[in-house]
Each structure stands twice: as C-alpha cells, then as structure tokens.
C-alpha cells in the first residue's frame, strides 16, 4: 500500500513539474523575447507588456479552476490532471512557433496572448487537481509531507527552466538568445508535456474519491455545492493572498529585480535564483513533516509574521546587493520564511472541503486570489519602479502578508480533519470518525 501511495505522489508530481516549467519559462525568458513581439523602445515598457500578458494568463485561472475543478469532482482527479497537461502542451507549442513583430506585426503578440490564456486554463485546474490528488493519496498522518511535493515539483519545474536558461546563456550569445534561442525551452516543455500525458493516462485514482462513488453525483463540482461552503471558499482567498504575493515576488520577479535594480548581470541574477530555489525545494518536505507534527496554523502564522516584518528590509538590502553571496543569502532568507506557507498550503485548502466539492473548492477561490494578487505581483512591482517609488511595492507585499496573518490567527486547525467525509457531512477529525465507526459497528 505504501508503494501505491508513492506511485501516486510521483505521477502527480511529475506532471506538476512540467506544468510549472512551461508556466515559469515564460517569465524567466521574458527579458529575451520581450522585444520580439512589441515595437522597440523603452525596455521597461516592453517588459511591462509581456508582464501584462503574464497577468492575463492569471485571470484565466479562475475559469480553468471552475472548469477543471468541476471535471475533477465529477469525473475524477485523474481526468482533470490529464486534461490540464494536454492544454499546457498546446500552449507551449503556440509560443514556440509564434511569429515576431517584424514578421507579423502584433499577430505574434496575439498568438502569445492566446497561448497564455490556454496556460491560465491549464494551471487554474492543475493546482487544485494536484493539491487534491496529493492530499487524498497520502496517509492521514502524512498529508502535510505528501502535499509538500506540489511545491517541490513546482520549484523543480522552475529550476529546470532556470537551469536550461543558464546552459543557453553559456552556450549562446545574447543576440542569438534574443533572436531565436528563447524558443528552445517552449519546445522542451511541449515534449515534456507529451511524456506526462502518457504517464497520467495510466495513473491510479485516489481511494478517497473512489469511496464516494455515485453519492449525490449530480451536485458534485457545482457552484451551488460550493456555495454551501462559502465560508471556506472565502477563507481560501484570504489565506492565499499573502502567500501568493510573497512567492511570486521571490521567484518570478526576483531575477528582474536583481538585474534592473541591484545591477547584477542577467546570468548572475539567474544563478542566484537557481541556487536559492534549489535549497527552497529541499525545504518543502521538511516543512510538510513539521506541520504533520505541530499542525498547519503555527507554520502559516510564522510565515505571515516573518513576511510582514521582514519584507521591506530584505527587499531594500537586495536592491543594494552588488554580488552573488549577499544576494543569495537574502533571497534564501526570504524563501525560508515563505516555506511556512508553500510547504502546506495545498493540504490546508484541500482539508477545508468535503470530497464532492474538494477540487472545485480549492481551484476556484485559489485561482481568484492568484489572479488578483499573484498574477499582478510582477506588473505592480514594475509599475512602482516605473513611477519612481519602487519601495512602495515592498510595503504592498508586507501589507498582503499582514491581512493573511489575521486569517491564520482566527482559522481552525485542519491537520486532523477526516478526508473521507462526503458532501453535506460536517467536518470530522480522524478521532471522531473512529469513535463513530465503533458506535455503528
């Protein structure tokens, strides 16, 4: 049985890695292809255009969350996960073949936009489907550990993208990368998605989902069913707010910040991100294991306190970091703090909802929060910089963390919730479920 659990975690994580590789290479290679799809001029304006399209992808995530969350609750986690990777493969191919501004005017930008819309649909469903799958596929006392592999695989996907970028930076000239080399990672992503599609077709469904069977199937994955758990849905939005802003600040935006503000060369800024993210990835299972012992709330509260108090000084010091070591140390400090959120946020959200609405309950409210706060983080940061008040963004990040801190302090602990409850049942802890089973036997 333990081997089956690990197989489920491995297949779910492998697909998640490819999904997020495709998602993140857009922003990590944006500095090279920004000029390919928009008229030459102000480099910051070109980056803002590509960041705007990046944000548009986020605003499709609620649609993907609703559509694929519904599929996950009605047809199974496996069906949703297979569909998400299909959409991601198609979007990567579109970006790889998109014509430049010189060739087709704004036609290339339109194709880029369509591809990001498809990616938004895919990732909007992928997050919830993988969070639900990893949480349900694990033993009750190891849900934090198992679900932490969502961010392990997410970070691994980003690391593969950054690693490929480092290789290309050292084997190609900047002119070659700007001309056509930036297309390579999207070709790689499309090929990886095809492999994962094959793996996911043979993956096993979770026992939690299979036990529900046809129970109230007509209500599963519907907005009406989700509305019955509206408090939990709003809770997901609020608890995601601070975490998603902090995460995207220290991942997708970091290389641009180190390059444009701290003055580090692009290749050195990429290396800082790569090394810090590798350590961050290794910390995720440790954070998940710790939450299985002490609970989810202490981890979330530690993250929110650290982000509220330390974001401004960390970002100001990063802006003055003139070499690799101080930039790496400060980035790692920030990511250690963020680990309190990332290592357990998947299981916390999944633990809030019953099986029949779990995928949609995680997907839609999370996607809304990610669109409003995570997807706009880079654009907001560049807006503050362009307006000459870059430090305003640091206070914005700290403020979002402070709002989430209030939520963490008032929410209930979810570690011992029973995932086998069905639609309409009140949340039970494992102890309460065992007591109920004894009384009815």
Automatic annotation (TrEMBL):
Tree of life domain: Bacteria
GO cellular component, as recorded: plasma membrane
Location in or out of the cell: Cell membrane
Molecular function, one GO term: symporter activity
Keyword NAD listed: no
Topological category with respect to the lipid bilayer: Multi-pass membrane protein
Pfam families linked to this entry: MFS_1
Segments passing through the bilayer: 20-38, 50-68, 80-98, 104-128, 149-168, 180-199, 233-250, 270-290, 299-318, 324-348, 360-381, 393-411
Assigned keywords, A-Z: Cell membrane, Membrane, Symport, Transmembrane, Transmembrane helix, Transport
Keyword hit for Cell membrane: yes
InterPro entries for the chain: H+-coupled_symporters, MFS, MFS_dom, MFS_trans_sf, Sugar_transporter_CS
All copies of domain Major facilitator superfamily (MFS) profile, residue ranges: 8-416
Family (UniProt): Belongs to the major facilitator superfamily. Metabolite:H+ Symporter (MHS) family (TC 2.A.1.6) family.
Function: May be a proton symporter involved in the uptake of osmolytes such as proline and glycine betaine.
Stated name of the protein: Putative proline/betaine transporter
Native species: Streptomyces bathyalis
């Amino acid at each position: 049985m333990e081997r089956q659990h690990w197989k489920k975690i491995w297949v779910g994580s492998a697909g998640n890695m490819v999904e997020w590789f495709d998602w993140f290479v857009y922003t990590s290679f944006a500095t090279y292809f920004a000029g390919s799809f928009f008229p030459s001029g102000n480099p910051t304006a070109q980056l803002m255009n590509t960041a705007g399209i990046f944000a548009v992808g986020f605003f499709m995530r609620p649609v993907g969350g609703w559509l694929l969350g519904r599929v996950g609750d009605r047809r199974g986690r496996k069906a949703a996960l297979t569909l998400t990777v299909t959409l991601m493969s198609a979007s990567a191919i579109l970006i790889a073949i998109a014509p430049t501004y010189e060739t087709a005017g704004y036609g290339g930008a339109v194709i880029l936009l369509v591809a990001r819309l498809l990616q938004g649909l895919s990732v909007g469903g992928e997050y919830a489907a993988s969070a639900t799958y990893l949480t349900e596929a694990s033993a009750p006392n190891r849900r934090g550990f198992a679900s932490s592999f969502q961010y392990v695989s997410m970070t691994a996907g980003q690391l593969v993208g950054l690693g490929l970028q480092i290789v290309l930076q050292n084997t190609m000239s900047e002119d070659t990368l700007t001309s056509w080399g930036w297309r390579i990672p999207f070709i790689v992503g499309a090929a990886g998605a095809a492999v994962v599609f094959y793996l996911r077709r043979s993956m096993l469904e979770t026992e939690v989902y299979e036990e529900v069977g046809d129970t109230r199937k007509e209500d599963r994955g519907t907005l009406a069913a989700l509305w019955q758990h509206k408090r939990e849905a709003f809770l997901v939005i609020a608890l995601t707010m601070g975490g998603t802003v902090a995460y995207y600040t220290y991942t997708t935006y970091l290389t641009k910040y180190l390059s444009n503000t701290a003055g580090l060369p692009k290749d050195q800024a990429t290396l800082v991100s790569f090394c810090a993210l590798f350590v961050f990835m290794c910390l995720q299972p440790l954070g998940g294991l710790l939450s299985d012992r002490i609970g989810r709330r202490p981890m979330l509260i530690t993250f929110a306190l650290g982000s509220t108090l330390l974001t401004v000084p960390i970002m100001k010091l990063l802006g003055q970091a003139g070499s690799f070591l101080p930039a790496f140390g400060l980035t790692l400090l920030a990511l250690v703090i963020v680990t309190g959120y990332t290592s357990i946020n998947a299981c916390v959200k999944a633990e809030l909802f019953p099986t029949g609405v779990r995928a949609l309950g995680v997907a839609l409210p999370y996607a809304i929060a990610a669109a409003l706060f995570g997807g706009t983080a880079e654009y907001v940061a560049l807006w503050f910089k362009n307006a000459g008040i870059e430090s305003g963004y640091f206070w914005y990040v700290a403020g979002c963390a402070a709002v989430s801190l209030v939520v963490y302090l008032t929410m209930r602990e979810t570690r011992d919730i029973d995932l086998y409850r069905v639609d309409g049942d009140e949340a039970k802890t494992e102890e309460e479920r065992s007591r109920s089973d004894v009384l009815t036997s």
